[in-house]
Amino acid sequence: MSTATARAHPNIALVKYWGKAEEDLILPVAGSMSMTLDAFATTTTVTVRESEEATDAEDSFVLNGTPATGTALDRTTRFLDHVRELAGSSARADVVSVNEAPTAAGLASSASGFAALALAASRAYGLDLDQRSLSRLARRGSGSACRSVVDRYAVWNAGTDDATSYAEPIDAPEMRLVIVTVDGAQKQVSSREGMRRTAATSPFYDAWITSTARTLEDMVAACKAGDLTAIGEITESHALRMHAVIASALPPVRYLAPASVAAFDTAAALREQGTFAYATADAGPNVCVLTTPDAAEDVAAALTPHGQVRIVGPGPGAHLTEEAAR
Ligand code: ADP
Ligand code: DP6
Ligand code: CO
What we know:
Elements: E1 2-8, E2 11-15, E3 20-22, E4 27-28, E5 32-36, E6 42-48, E7 60-63, E8 66-67, H1 70-87, E9 93-99, H2 109-124, H3 131-141, E10 153-157, E11 166-169, E12 176-181, H4 191-201, H5 205-225, H6 228-247, H7 258-272, E13 278-281, E14 287-291, H8 296-303, E15 308-312, E16 319-320, H9 322-325
Parallel strand pairs: 7-9
Antiparallel strand pairs: 1-6, 1-16, 2-5, 3-4, 5-10, 6-9, 7-8, 10-11, 12-14, 12-15, 13-14
The chain binds adenosine-5'-diphosphate (ADP), ligand DP6 and cobalt (II) ion.
Residues 42, 63, 71-72, 75-76, 97, 99, 103-111, 113-114, 117, 142, 190-191, 282-284 line the site of adenosine-5'-diphosphate.
Organism: Brachybacterium endophyticum
Domain Diphosphomevalonate decarboxylase-like N-terminal: 8-167
Pfam families: MDD_C, MVD-like_N
């Protein structure tokens, strides 16, 4: 029996990933950029069973204290299949995972979840992957997970095949995100399904793809220049473009709630007063407002009417827990 425990944090994209060029490998239509958070971790333990005989046996997956079934179990099993292929093993595994963030609510539980699973499973199956290989592996579980392998700020190079599609660190100025939890409930349309629908039905999809590639170039340049205002402007406009292309799908998908829109308005009002605040939101109603360490308390206070607020900063990439590292 071999076991390993890993922790990973969600990441919030400042340039969003929305759409796949290749579904099985999870190659994105464009690159993206994110901050890995220092809060809301996922902790995952993988125990590989000793006996390889029972090849018909199933993996087990307990998420937040409840045995997973259906799609969630299936995604984990298919992910473990990739790990087994790399490790040359057919042994089944037992996976136990706890998300500190709400699951499937647009706070990147799939990112922290599959980054932690990639590290714990690769170790439990006897693999010792470097950061790039771990990022490539995590990508197979959920695209955004490839960025949660990296500390602080990451760029996911879209790439053209499995070997070239991975995240790597990028330097950026010290920033904070004020997370506004408007609603922790599970979303109606998963990111995976929402992306498929957008690609299949939005008349704006091609423009989204080409403009996102340019937006990422602008973001990388802004990070290199340490240009906070440009980083903020790009972040907010790119998030709104993503929600626009999503709303243009058929049947339409709308992830933002009235309170989410109100939080975007509060960010705009803060800017009017000279405070650095730019809003973004993933595929869910919860809003993240980008700000500076100095302004974070004021920004958080202004956002309290819209939901539960928490100030977070850049945090560590996926890592083994101390017990497992010993
Ligand atoms: P989110 O906005 O939270 O990332 P997604 O729709 O992208 O939502 O993904 C949610 C799915 O990710 C869940 O339904 C489940 O299949 C998977 N997931 C979430 N947390 C974990 C975890 N800790 N381990 C493995 N899979 C997870
Ligand atoms: C809006 O990585 O959750 O959060 O690859 O199908 O698992 P799958 O999707 P996922 O999509 C994330 C979408 C997003 C933007 C982002 O994180 O870049
Ligand atoms: Co996700």
